[in-house]
Design brief:
The protein contains 9 helices and 10 strands. By secondary structure, the chain is of the alpha+beta class. Strands 4, 5, 6, 7, 8 and 10 form a 6-stranded mixed beta sheet that branches. Strands 2-1-3-9 form a 4-stranded antiparallel beta sheet. Helix 6 runs antiparallel to helix 7. The termini are far apart. The N terminus is likely disordered.
Length: 293
Amino acid sequence: MTQPTTIRRVPGRRPRLPEPLRTALELAATGVPVLPLRRGKVPFGNCHRCVQNVCGGRPNMKSTGPCRCPGVCHAWAAATTDPDVLTSPAWKAAWQRSVSVAYHPGGADLTVVDLDDAAAIAWARTALPVTRTVPTTRGEHWIYRGAMTSRNAVRPGVDIKSAMAYARYLGPGTGTLTALPDAVRALAVKEPSPVRPAPPAITAPTGGEKCPHRTPAYLERGIAMAEQRITAASSAVHATVYRTFLAVLSTHGRCGCLTDTHMARLFTAAQAKGETPRHCTDAWTNARTRLGL
């Protein structure tokens, strides 16, 4: 990928290999870490050794570093340049089912600016330095020399794919690689989030109102069940957290039984599943707003 016009064949390899594997070996020989993609242009799922990321990988197949499993796991982290790994039995089985090749741009010291449509391409032509381009189904990949933080949706129709990301290999492209400019790096810089006040505490009822819950055990059981529901979520964690907060507040939010301690327990369960404090606060506030609390 770094010098796609001079990609060399790997000597000694038999021609009877799946086409994606042949392409992958050619790329790997130039120092580009590669991995197979299955139908839908997505990576293969974790192997049985890594089910539910017991190996230490993060959720959604986002490992924190190179995958050490013999299988094809953890998306970009599985990408490798080792021909022995690429042609191993476990990987060969994946190549037989693969439909295309992906590569880890950051691992090859590259950054891909993924332009998804004509409007994004028109913007890039006025905002970014000319570099190597590769046509995609709907737009173009602009490839720069140098790695950076990846980030999706940096502007309409524009994603940045470099470190901890993968890009589909669509050919060598045309043009000369340009050094990664500050204009691209600036796209991945997140604006500081506004400081959000903590959700107001739910106060106890006044005026002699009687709590409808007969015993404290009712509330304790509800909070415990909510914690369990969040902990058991294997996908759509953010949506599960919001729905759980909504259920708790709809049952216990108007009588004054909920305390900051209960809320902290729910936030702790959500953060253990990867939610940030801000996501927790937003979900809690949105649930209160929906219920008119």
